From TrEMBL:
This is Bifunctional salicylyl-CoA 5-hydroxylase/oxidoreductase. Gene3D superfamilies: 3.30.9.20, Aldolase class I (3.20.20.70), FAD/NAD(P)-binding domain (3.50.50.60). It comes from the Bacteria. PANTHER family: BLR3436 PROTEIN (PTHR43303:SF3), NADPH DEHYDROGENASE C23G7.10C-RELATED (PTHR43303). NCBIfam families: PRK08255.1 (NF006101). The lineage of its organism: Bacteria, Pseudomonadati, Pseudomonadota, Betaproteobacteria, Burkholderiales. It comes from Comamonas guangdongensis. Residues 3-146 form the FAD-binding domain. Residues 412-742 form the NADH:flavin oxidoreductase/NADH oxidase N-terminal domain.
Length: 787
């Protein structure tokens, strides 16, 4: 087979040598526009898993690279005059130039033809090639030529960065944050040989411009960075090897994702993208070279697999390329998602974390920025550091740490105090509709349902949304707060929880608006009743399910006054029933949410138009409710922080919404999203709504509740420890297991947690079962490692 690799970076060179090694008869050429043994950039980072792969596929190259590697375990943070170090992270780095030199020499040894100083204009210049590898980088000319087929999604990120080097050698992967009069700069620093370290300086576009760096040349930019990080550099200079770039050499990162990875060109050659040409990963997690090398390995693997069956000639290329794309797509997206999380953290840290967080919590937030490293993963990496951090968190929450053991409760089991209420831990049973009330009255089912979950270890148990009027019910099975019978039923539940458990009881009040008068969920979610429908109203005329739902009428001023009074009456009934906490439901397209979202509010009066106007009525309702709700009891507001529809509420809007409710007297924002429009396209994933809670908490300066796909203790501990939210609301896992909190405590080995005395015999059994399971897993892992 005749193979041409356009671009002599890690992807092209490594694939070339692997294919030549696989079959010496292959005619393999690498074409590079730079001079022989010349390259730009400083150090690159590998993972241990990538090195394992390289040892398997070419031990000779792997040994040479390993010999040149610099290995370090520690991450060090320089921040607000503090130096904090955590170990066990396991990085390996090598100079990019040295890496390419090793790969080039190995290619020559195996008989790969290397062609330098040739700037390839088109893949069709090699019409006789069976396979053309487009490994020509992030600005791939080949990808651009066939953009209509490769369908690249290219996003230019806002931060500016400059990639420099220094002769100061750092023993840890170091992050240095420096505040200026215009904002924060951060440096990402790591050594890659015995004499040199990479030194990447990053900041926001606004800060970059405010310092005049948009008009600076490279030397002026270097001089600026040397002055900025003078305490760190201690007299050492910064260097550039990018003199070929015009201007200051400050650039923006480009995230590249391609829908299609290969094609057949007009000359009959197959063209496949590889490395940065097909995907990029931000330097915040250092996986660009890893992805390139593993691309090369996977494509070679596919040729080898097919070769074992039917040879590896030209006729099999299409099926090999299809298999390659399928095999790499999932892993690539996983790495890119982690890189995106890490990248976004650094993009917003100056606005969101640097000023707000203390150094200890800032370090934790930074270490877990990609969401690949969790709380328990940190414990495996550096138990001493994490133990010390847990002690710091505990003392900050007023919890004494045992002097003998030094152990502190996991973050999710720290108490939380707000107004006159203290929760025993940070876990909340989220409000979940049960559709089981009769005439709005919660019955025995609700007592058992909520009572069981109160026994299950959570600090706060929410009842489902209680509707403030019969017309405000979602379904005929929804409970309410508009009759004495309902108040008596809620009182019975509150009394039982307070008598038999140490959990607190919360109620959520709301009005369904245009989503009212529908069937019970198991009879058809959001579908109108087959009979007995009642008139519905909302901020504007609306039909939630197009062509199916009832059409709501627009509320008049008289309607608004009446409903506001219903909310105040509902809050008063909840207080009299003994609820410890009240939440106002302003999310999910229900009445108050419908006023807030531009997708559902088309009013032309003072309650429509701008976000300020759209918030006017929900704030009126909130103030009326807060006025009758007892001063010492907390009040939260649930919002949809993202409508997931173009033109709808955005996370940026959500910050402003939170600020408005904070100013009105809200204690916390319960950060949900969506369910406002059926046109929504949410992006799901574990803890997928936590970023909304995180952003609102830091930027609006109000406590938050994270909710959505929080399903294990590791999630909750990471969220609380990083300061991304103050409480974690867990919904579906609590439907499956009322004792979710107690179960998760046993899973992570937190035995001091108290169980209800009636259930004490189950405590030790569950803890023992999980302990035995961990021992068996550890033994199996040790056995596998031994073989």
């Amino acid at each position: 087979m005749k193979i041409v690799c356009i671009g002599g970076g890690p992807a092209g060179l490594y694939f070339a040598l692997l294919m030549k090694q696989l079959n010496a008869a292959h005619d393999v050429t690498v074409v590079e526009r730079n001079k022989p043994y010349d390259t730009f950039g400083w150090g690159v980072v590998f993972s241990d898993a990538t090195m394992d792969n390289m040892r398997e596929w070419d031990p000779v190259t792997a040994a040479q690279i390993e010999e040149a590697f610099n290995h370090w375990d520690d991450i060090e943070l320089l921040f607000k005059g503090r130096k904090i170090r955590s170990g066990g992270h396991g990085f390996v780095g090598i100079g990019r130039k040295h890496l390419l030199n090793i790969l080039q020499a190995r290619c020559e040894q195996l008989g790969v033809k290397l062609v330098f100083e040739t700037d390839v204009q088109s893949d069709e210049d090699y019409a006789d090639a069976d396979l053309v590898i487009a490994s020509d980088g992030v600005n791939s000319r080949i990808r651009g030529k066939y953009a209509g087929m490769f369908k690249p999604d290219i996003v230019t990120r806002p931060n500016r960065y400059i990639w420099l080097g220094t002769n100061k050698v750092y023993e840890a992967f170091t992050f240095d944050f420096v505040r200026t009069e215009h904002g924060w700069f951060q440096a990402h620093i790591y050594k890659f040989d015995d004499q040199t370290s990479t030194f990447i300086v990053e900041t926001t576009e606004d800060c970059w411009k405010a310092h005049g760096l948009d008009e600076a040349d490279q030397q002026q930019s270097i001089n600026f960075c040397e002055r900025l990080f003078t305490d760190n550099l201690q007299g050492e200079k910064l260097m550039t090897n990018a003199r070929h770039l015009r201007g200051s050499a400050w650039i923006n990162f480009q995230r590249v994702v391609c829908e299609q990875w290969w094609l057949r060109n007009a000359k009959g050659s197959h063209v496949v993208l590889m490395g940065d040409a097909v995907h990029t990963a931000h330097f915040a997690i250092g996986s660009g070279t890893k992805l390139a090398i593993e691309d090369a390995i996977e494509l070679t693997r596919q040729f080898k697999l097919l070769g074992n069956v039917s040879g590896d000639g030209r006729e099999h290329i299409p099926e090999v390329l299809a298999a390659y794309q399928e095999a790499r797509r999932v892993e690539t997206l996983r790495i890119q998602n982690a890189a995106w999380n890490a990248m976004e953290w650094f993009e917003v840290c100056g606005q969101r974390y640097c000023d707000q967080l203390e150094p200890e919590q800032f370090m934790y937030s930074m270490l877990t920025r990609s969401q690949r490293i969790s709380h328990e993963n940190l414990r495996l990496r550096d138990p001493a550091w994490l133990g010390g951090y847990e002690q710091w968190l505990a003392r900050r929450s007023g919890v004494p740490v045992d002097a003998d053991s030094g152990k502190a409760p996991p973050p999710m089991f720290l108490p939380y105090k707000v107004r006159g209420l203290t929760l025993k831990n940070r876990i909340v049973v989220s409000p979940m509709a049960q559709y089981s009330a009769q005439d709005g009255v919660p019955g025995d089912y609700h007592l058992v349902h909520l009572g069981a979950r109160a026994l299950g270890g959570a600090g706060l148990v929410f009842a489902e949304m209680a509707c403030v009027s019969p017309e405000g019910r979602i379904t005929p099975g929804c409970p309410g707060t508009y009759s004495e019978a309902q108040k008596a039923a809620w009182t019975r539940i509150a009394d039982w929880i307070h008598t038999h458990t140490d959990a607190k009881f919360a109620m959520q009040i709301g009005h369904a608006g245009a989503k009212a008068s529908t069937r019970l969920a198991w009879e058809g979610t959001d579908l109108p009743l087959t009979e007995g429908n009642w008139p519905i109203m909302s901020a504007s005329p609306q039909q939630y399910l197009e062509g199916v739902s009832q059409i709501s009428r627009q509320m008049t001023r008289a309607d608004m006054d009446e409903v506001k009074q219903q909310f105040a009456h509902g809050a008063q009934m909840a207080a009299e029933a003994g609820a410890d906490w009240l939440e106002l439901h302003c999310a999910h397209g229900y009445l108050l949410s419908a006023f807030i979202s531009p997708l559902t509010n088309h009013r032309e009066d003072e309650y429509g138009g701008s976000l300020e106007n759209r918030l006017r009525y929900p704030l009126e309702v909130f103030k009326a409710v807060r006025a009758v709700w007892p001063e010492k009891r907390p009040m939260s507001v649930r919002i949809s922080a993202h409508d997931w529809v173009p033109g709808g509420i955005t996370p940026e809007d959500a910050v402003q919404i939170a600020k408005a409710f904070k100013a009105a007297g809200a204690d916390l924002i319960d950060c949900s999203s969506g369910q406002v429009s059926k046109q929504e396209k949410p992006v799901f994933g574990r803890m997928f709504q936590t970023p909304f809670a995180d952003r609102i908490r830091q930027e609006a300066g109000i406590a938050t509740i994270a909710v959505g796909a929080i399903s294990e203790a590791d999630h909750a501990n990471s969220i609380i420890a990083a300061g991304r939210a103050d409480l974690c609301a867990v919904a579906r896992p609590h439907l499956a297991n009322p004792n979710w909190t107690l179960t998760e405590a046993a899973k992570i080995g937190y035995t001091p947690i108290a169980w209800p005395k009636q259930l004490y015999q189950g405590k030790r059994q569950m803890e023992t079962l999980f302990e035995r399971e961990k021992m068996q897993q550890a033994a199996a892992a040790a056995s596998a490692a031994g073989h």
